[in-house]
Amino acid sequence: MTALHWILFAISAILIGLVMLQESKNDVKNTFSGEKSDLFKNQKQRGPELFMARLTLGFALIFGLFAILATVL
């Protein structure tokens, strides 16, 4: 494994941790059971939630970039 693969592995571990730390918007079982659900309702994120969402998006983009670089190189 090259250094690029190790960096990709570290980024993926951080990304998994960030996703696990985020709070769920709604219970998934209510979405598929036919009950009224606000899962797809526009919900504003503020404060730490917004920071975590943006940080996760940033790491997801970095992960995609490094995955492409690891494949090409």
Task: Tell me what you see in this structure.
The mean pLDDT is 83. The protein is built from 3 helices and no strands. The chain is mainly α and 73 residues long. The protein has a domain at 1-21 and 45-73. It is elongated and about 45 Å long. The chain starts with a helix and ends with a helix. α1 (3-21) runs antiparallel to α3. Helices cover 67% and strands 0% of the residues.
Q: Alpha-carbon distance between the termini?
A: 12 Å
Stretches with pLDDT under 50, minimum 5 residues: none
- Please describe the biggest sheet, giving its number of strands, its sense, and whether it closes into a barrel: none
| Residue fraction in strands | under 5%
Sequence of secondary-structure elements: HHH
Mean pLDDT value? 83
Number of strands: 0
Overall SS class: mainly alpha
Give the proportion of residues in helices.
Answer: 55-70%
Shape designation: elongated
* Gyration radius over CA: 16 Å
Supply the number of helical segments.
3
